[in-house]
Amino acid sequence: MTSRTPRTLVASDLDRTLIYSTAALALSMPDEHAPRLLCVEVHEAKPLSYLTETAAELLVELADATQFVPATTRTRKQYRRISLPGPQPRFAICANGGHLLVDGRTDHDWNAEMRRRLADGSVPLEEIRAHLAATADPLWLRKERIAEDLFAYLVVDRERLPVGWVKELAAWAEPRGWTVSLQGRKIYAVPKPLSKSAALAEVVRRSGADQVFAAGDSLLDADLLMAADAGWRPGHGELADSGWTAPHVTGLATAGVAAGEEILRRMLVRAAADGLAA
Questions:
Q1: 216, exposed or middle or buried, with CB in 10 Å at 0-12, 13-18, 19+?
Q2: What pLDDT was estimated at residue 28?
Q3: Cβ 69 vs Cβ 93: under 8 Å
Q4: How many CA atoms lie within 13 A of 72 on its CB side?
Q5: Cα(35)–Cα(259) distance, rounded to whole angstroms?
Q6: How far is CA 103 from CA 69, 106, 150, 204, 219, in A?
Q7: pTM value?
Q8: Of 183, 249, 247, whose CA–CA distance to 215 is shortest?
Q9: How far apart are CA 221 and CA 32, in angstroms?
């Protein structure tokens, strides 16, 4: 029987995995050793997010060798501010799986399917929002946002955020079918049926991929990593801090913007090795 090269799909989180804000760059090495950076996001005429120039070259190479799928908790509007190097991805997962973009356009049928799942699997967003409003302290709360009418998040002052508040919120939300995630200055409350892995499964079905790589740094990426054949997480973020791991997931020691570069390099090496072995 003639073997063939696996059709590989790469689904990766963006923020704090491949791209980094100015604040997140503090996770990296000292300034004098910092790599050259490429700005990939501008908001209100200000540069906002970056990856290393080497990571940009690796991403173009990876997208040429595999099917690259951004998988982000960002809203569609926030995602569209990003200009990644290389061609526009055929598929993009936004709003933590609540929206699927196909050639840059919203797939409304997928969004309707996800809303049906939410109606059956978790308490309404309004209940979560009311609890956040009642328990968040203006002393440390900076902004409260609703994303795509699907989930909520708070922007907070981390230095003033009480120790244990996020854990208390998570314990309250879990039996109600919601997940809580702390990422930088943002606290996310997301219904469990709303997952990147659900959208990934749909992309795999449509694309015919038979091998999946994934990368991510937060609790909201754990299901994405578990759905992959091979995964990588950086040496920072919720998953690294908690020591989360899985047999097929490689936890890197590298933290900060350099971790994005290492993740892309390892994906390319793995894809090339699998291609040669096929």
A1: buried
A2: 63
A3: yes
A4: 23
A5: 12
A6: 11, 9, 22, 15, 28
A7: 0.93
A8: 249
A9: 32
The rounded distance, in Å, linking the Cα atoms of 111 and 97 is: 9
What span, in angstroms and rounded, lies between the C-alpha atoms of 225 and 17? 13
Tokens 């049926």 correspond to: 193
Instruction: Name the nearest CA neighbour of 93 among 207, 12, 28, 210.
Output: 12
Do 252 and 263 form a contact (C-beta atoms < 8 A)? Answer: yes
Contact 257, 46 (CB under 8 A): no
Each residue's pLDDT tens digit, 228-256: 999 999 999 999 999 999 999 999 999 99
Q: For residue 265, how many other CB atoms are within 10 A of its CB?
A: 15
Tokens for 165, please give them.
């508040």
As a whole number of angstroms, the distance between CA 185 and CA 82 comes to 20
Q: Which residues lie across from 101 on neighbouring strands?
A: 92, 106
Helical axes 165-173 vs 125-135, angle rounded to 10°: 150
CATH no., domain 123-191: 3.30.1360
Over the stretch 183-201, which tens digit does the pLDDT of each residue have? 989 999 999 999 999 999 9
Out of 3.30.450.40, 2.40.50.140, 3.30.465.10, 3.40.50.1000, the CATH code matching 8-115+194-277 is 3.40.50.1000
The C-alpha angle 227, 233, 239, rounded to 5 degrees, equals: 90
Q: What burial class does residue 177 get, using C-beta atoms within 10 Å of its C-beta: 0-12 exposed, 13-18 middle, 19+ buried?
A: middle
